[in-house]
Amino acid sequence: MTSESTLPSVGVVVPTRDRPELVRLTLKAIAEQDYAGRIEVVVVHDQVPPDHQLESCGQRPVRVCGNLRSPGLAGARNTGIMALETHLVAFCDDDDVWLPGKISTQVARLLREPDAEMCTCAIVVRYDGHSTERLAHAEQVDHQDLVRSRMSMLHSSTFLLRLSALRDDIGLLDESIPGSQNEDWELLLRASRRRPIAHVDEPLVAVRWGGSSFFARQWRSRIDSLVWLLERYPELGLDPVGNARISGQIGFGLACLGQRRQAMRWAFKAFQQSHWEWRSAATLMVACGIVSGDRLLAVLHRFGRGV
Fold first, then answer.
1. Portion of the chain with pLDDT greater than 70, in percent
2. Dihedral of CA 260/148/12/89: which sign?
3. Taking a C-beta distance cutoff of 8 angstroms, is the pair 216, 173 a contact?
């Protein structure tokens, strides 16, 4: 039988900002994990005063601090990472909830694969009363998988990494990415360049989509972050399917910003790269005023999908 002394310790980084009710639900789910090893939590308040009352939440140790690095998700996560001295580090956003068995299942997977540096799991998306499971249909994710697709089921709240590998080999979150947008995908790309990512294809995290996210509709920074990624990861521009997806996302964002001409140029570029890229048509519909971007997103979110 394994005990706390024989299992790797897990540090959980929870960045938060002005969501006191939701973050308490997040901490409750972490505290209720059935993992027999040590779990400690660092809650990092980004651009708001720390709420030290959170340190009394649950039966697991909780520390509270402010973001000591760049404002935004990347800096907040890095602040938490550098505050830990555990074997493993996990992320959980303050509007998401770990389901029972999340940590114990992922730790068991890493223990079976000593060469793996990172493990993810599938998710269930919750939006407006609807729940949709998002599975990867794979037990391992390599770099080319992430070049071709963002694989949104590999959500940041599913990440579990070896702390030493993250700090010394993979590297911390890149705080220079515009608006801290897509910083989780960038970390996946960087980690998968080194080694394939172990994956548990069970929905072990409930992800809340919708208006609660501070980053849900920040189109300018989302566009800028995608251009940033294209510049730093040339392989993204070499895969026709992956490049078409990114072009379609940029076009859709521009259409939502009312920049019709630029949006249509990106939509045409996406169509040239892949005739099957549906974001081309979505961009044209928004750019031409047939449907609003918010309305189209609401329909997609009901099926657990995004742009």
1. 96
2. negative
3. no
* pTM, full prediction: 0.94
What domains sit in the chain, N to C, each tagged with a CATH number? 10-208 (3.90.550.10), 239-302 (no CATH)
Query: How many CA atoms lie within 13 Å of 122's alpha carbon, on the beta-carbon side?
Result: 15
Confidence label for 214 from pLDDT (cuts 50, 70 and 90): very low
Instruction: Please count the other Cβ atoms lying within 10 Å of the Cβ belonging to residue 224.
Output: 18
Those residues with Cβ within 8 angstroms of residue 147's Cβ, 6 or more apart along the chain or in another chain: 189, 233, 235, 236, 239, 242
**Cβ(206)–Cβ(96) below 8 Å:** yes
Strand, helix or coil at 41?
Answer: strand
What pLDDT shows up at residue 1?
42
Number of separate helices (H) and strands (E) present in the chain: 12, 10
Helices 260-273 and 240-256: angle between axes, nearest 10 degrees = 160
Helices 240-256/293-302 angle, 10° precision: 130
Run of H or E residues at 111: helix 102-112
